[in-house]
Amino acid sequence: MASIAQKSLFCWHDVEALGDLHRLRLVLENLPDEELMQQLEQRRGRGRNEYPVRAMWNSLVAGIVFQHPSIEQLRRELLRNGQLRDLCGCDPTRGSDAVPSASAYSRFLSTLRKRSIREALVRVFTSLVDQCYRELPGFGRRLGADGKGIASVARRRGKGAGDRRGEHDADWGCHEYVYQNERGEVQKSVKKWFGFTVHLLADTAYELPVAFTVSRASKHEVPVMRKLIRSLDRHRPHILKAAEVFTADRGYDDGTLIDLLWHEHRIKPVIDIRNLWKDGEETKLVAGTPNVVYDYQGTVSCVCMATGTQREMAYRGFEEKRGTLKYGCPAVHYGYECAGKASCPLASCIRIPLSTDRRVFTPLARSSYRWKREYAKRTALERIHSRLDRSFSLELHTIRGQEKLSVHLTLVFSVMSALALGRVRENQPNQMRSLVRPAA
């Protein structure tokens, strides 16, 4: 009869041959969770050790990797899958009896929400992010921000504080989307949900999380993101020092946020803009010039003094020391025939200070090709959100409460980062975004 060691070796080889369990092995090997395990062991002390801390933690991670939206589904998988139990560290001599009970998981999850344990769990995530900065070339140079609405499993508040089935932390949120239909008509779509919002800051090149926070659904994205950036400045300043570009949609269009990014941290904001001009004007005159105008999207044009023809000026770059954007005469740059060239008061170029309008004029000019290329990378956030829904089953979650959701997302983002690092360390960088196989 084969020994336990031989059986374990046989199971391990089987694990290597199975893609799903191989992904779990990668995650478990790359999670920096020793400090967390020590704190959990200390907290348990001399209490019952029927279900070891390490086995419970590993199986909880397995539930995320295998997309189980509930503890009961995870337990069913553990009961039927001996290889999974072995990989999680369950006692092989006990068989299916080694699978923790539902109440044991409930107590374990409650322990993870304790302040000291929750802080240790957050350090697991931040340690993985720091490893990404060290091992992934250029990680953190291009950051993107976006908020994702997460509907609560409970559709309304409970009637009393003791109602555990009701949702006491969530409230209503609303997002308005503006888009063009097939006929080019501007349409508006409104999304309302009862629940929470996860505010995510991520690397847009690697599509990996850098920082996040969870709020009620009604919280506006801009003040939460400002608070998150200031928190990073206090506790993890290397993140902001490495960043060069910050990309976000028009929901983050805010002069204070732009000032915070550029003037305090020298991060170039690439944020879509809303039309807040209330006077109905299509263009405004650049101060000190008789014939140079700009629109709310930052397109600078000159008006021919003879014919009144308006032509877009050529962007010539950002002058950081001057704090100005430089634009060239279109007749000189593009070779136009300009009837009013002789009477034009402009020289070959003009400089526009960022202070003219800090929302309209940013260090990376909105009218430049580079701005458009950088902004296109914002779709990385949408792909991360899609993975949260489909690969990590967030659209099927059964979580109640802001604190529980925050702990769960910390686990999810840690798994996401650990698996990506594992792929890179196994010389499989092309698979680092194939985080978890979507459920059929």
TrEMBL record:
List, for all copies, the residue spans of the domain called Transposase InsH N-terminal.
22-109
One Gene Ontology term of the biological-process aspect is: DNA transposition
Q: Where is the Transposase IS4-like domain?
A: 188-414
Q: What GO molecular function annotation could you give as one example from this UniProt entry?
A: DNA binding
Q: What is this protein called?
A: Transposase IS4 family protein
Q: Which organism is it from?
A: Winmispira thermophila (strain ATCC 700085 / DSM 6578 / Z-1203) (Spirochaeta thermophila)
